[in-house]
Write a structure and sequence with these properties.
Layout: E1 2-3, H1 9-19, E2 28-31, E3 40-45, E4 48-54, H2 67-77, E5 87-91, H3 94-97, E6 101-105, E7 110-111, H4 122-140, H5 158-173, H6 179-187, E8 199-201, E9 210-212, E10 219-222, E11 229-231, H7 233-241, H8 259-262, H9 267-277, H10 287-310, H11 318-322, H12 325-338
Antiparallel strand pairs: 1-2, 2-3, 3-4, 4-6, 5-6, 7-9, 8-11, 9-10
Length: about 350
Amino acid sequence: MSSAQDFDLGALDRWMSLHVAGYVGPAEVVKFPSGQSNPTYRIDTASGAYVLRRRPFGTLLPSAHAVDREYRLMAALHPTGFPVPRPLALCTDSQILGTDFYVMDLVPGRSFWDGALPDSSPTERRSIYEALIDTLARLHSIDPSKVGLGDYGRPGNYFERQVIRWTKQYRASETELIQEAERLIAWLPKTLPKQERFGIVHGDYRIDNVLFATNESRVVAVLDWELSTTGDPLADLSYFLMHWDMPHDGTAGMASLDLESLGIPTLAQMLNRYAAATNRGNVPELNWHFAFNLFRLMAIVQGIRKRVMDGNASSPQAEAVSKRVRPLAAQAWTWALRAGAT
């Protein structure tokens, strides 16, 4: 972590005294080094530890970095017992810290960045991945309308509106012509899959956005809801499972790993477990969904690249991440070809 010099700590202390029940200052703040989207900070005080997430400073793309949506989503899920941090207070007055932000409880737990889980035993690896897919199935079993999220996403075909959204986001941050991206932009809207189910979609569900209990393979918090919405749960499922085909580079990707010897379930085993937990007789072939999710990831990384060029990227790793745009476009088009593109 690094010391927070991004905003007025006195202003934060005064605001928390008024809006966070039981808060006792002063606050000592450090910034988490990870994360490419909303800058995140740990706040330590006499009354306990908290986490603050804010929008980045500077000019942003429309609808991006909506911390108010994150806050609303967690406020809806927390009373159900679903593992999210308890949201404490939201600030939409940019005069306080210079941008919108919210404060939530800090949840103690373990985070894993390497999908191979090199420090775990085969038994623990299997139980961790089973807990991940079970938690995703649990999320997709929640009726949005019963938790006050019936209007959280726009109506209509989820993938149609998502293709439109990410095409716009990509165009808004485009810095060069990439042929595979152009082919995807033309092909995806012509081949939209039929939506069969409707639920809460996390939008970025992967192992490094989940916290586990310190001494057991139990999910204690699902984090980073910036891309959450309502729509087709297969978007989340395919995004999570595409990491089985992503390069293993010390992050969530697991391609080329010997899953059996590591104790990690295969993609087919994860699909079967999810189908059983969500009462689906079968899960359709997901090649189109993999192509879409890689296209969406390409658009997100293109946004990071643009922020690097504009000088307002939130993470020191942003420049390295921004170089993945072309490889992601090529990989997405490979899945499109498997799904029937020509």
